[in-house]
Design goal:
The chain is mainly beta and about 140 residues long. The chain has two helices and six strands; from the N terminus they run H-E-E-E-E-E-E-H. Strand 4 and strand 5 form a beta hairpin.
Length: about 140
C-alpha cells in the first residue's frame, strides 16, 4: 500500500516567515497625462515582507558599453497583491516585477524581478527622493 505524504498548507508560510525580510515596495497607483501631454505615474510606498533569491546575471557586450542584467525570484505571502510593474528597493538597487504567477500556491505568491536603472523612471526617482528627504517640492 502506498503512503501519501500530506504537506500542511501552513508549512510554506512558516518557511517563508523564517527566511523573509522587509523591503520598500512602490506600487503604481495612478497613471495619467500631465498638462504638457507626457505620461506620468503616481507611486505609493509600502512595505512588503518576502524572500528575495538571486536568479541569474547576464552581460551584453556592445561597442557603446557593456551592460549587466541581474534577475531575481521573489516569494511572498498571498496577502500581498504584487503586480507586474511594481518596484522593490533592495539596498539601493531598484527591482521591477516583470513576471508573476497568476495563482497562489499553498498561500505563497512567486514573481520574477529585473534590476532597472532608476533614471529611466523619472516619476519614481523624484518620489523616492522626496520620501527620503533628499528633495523638497
Amino acid at each position: 500500500m502506498a503512503i501519501k505524504h500530506i504537506v500542511p498548507p501552513t508549512f510554506f508560510n512558516q518557511a517563508l516567515n523564517l527566511f523573509s525580510a522587509e523591503y520598500d515596495w512602490y506600487i503604481a497607483v495612478e497613471k495619467f497625462i500631465d498638462d504638457m501631454g507626457k505620461p506620468k505615474i503616481k507611486y505609493e510606498k509600502r512595505t512588503i515582507k518576502g524572500s528575495l533569491q538571486p536568479k541569474a546575471s547576464t552581460i551584453n557586450f556592445e561597442k557603446t558599453g557593456n551592460t549587466v542584467k541581474q534577475s531575481y525570484d521573489f516569494y511572498c505571502s498571498a496577502i500581498y497583491r504584487i503586480n507586474i510593474g511594481d518596484i522593490i528597493c533592495y539596498y539601493g538597487n531598484w527591482l521591477q516585477v516583470n513576471e508573476m504567477q497568476p495563482y497562489d500556491e499553498w498561500g505563497v505568491r512567486h514573481c520574477g524581478l529585473d534590476m532597472i536603472n532608476i533614471n529611466a523612471y523619472r516619476d519614481l526617482e523624484e518620489y523616492a527622493k522626496f520620501i527620503n528627504g533628499e528633495e523638497t517640492i
